[in-house]
Amino acid sequence: MMKNKVCNYESEKRIKLMVTNFKGQVNIYFIISTILFVSLSIYLISIIIEIYPTHQNDISSDVWYSKAYSVSELLIKDSGYPKDWDETNFERIGLASEPYSLNSTKINEFEKICNSTTNLTKIQKFRDSFGLENNNLVVEINYLNNTNIIKCKPTGEKVGATARIKRIATLNNKFVEVIVYVG
Q1: How far is CA 57 from CA 52, 60, 84, 131, in A?
Q2: Residue ranges of the domains in the chain?
Q3: H-helix or E-strand containing 97?
Q4: Given this model, what pLDDT does residue 39 score?
């Protein structure tokens, strides 16, 4: 029994000696694992940084396309609110007398709103009626032979990175294209 206690004591002493001998020393496995960890971390961070802006641009582009599509839907399928709106009393702009059939009187009123460059509150109300608080909007209506009917650029807005939606409707029994740019 005494012999076992002596053996235990000596093995504990050896372990303590081994631990105390390694204080402040770095072995090769620690160096390799640290280099591997740092390298892998840098690689993963660079991949994330590279991918993130691409997805951010895609998301912004999808939002612009959905806004442009909803504006085109309102213009060619809806008569607006109130139904007999004009440039002084509109809540929501719609150019249709029935879906896909545009009303020339409403197009003329729409043009008046677009050309009111001095009345910025009317332009802001125009944007807000489409849910485009901070986005620029350009609307073109052309006959299919590229004859321009209206090009609505409120306050001469320049649309930078944009979404473009082109829809077909009728005006006075002729086909027209309604092009909406949002950016």
Answers
A1: 9, 5, 40, 21
A2: 60-182
A3: strand 96-98
A4: 96
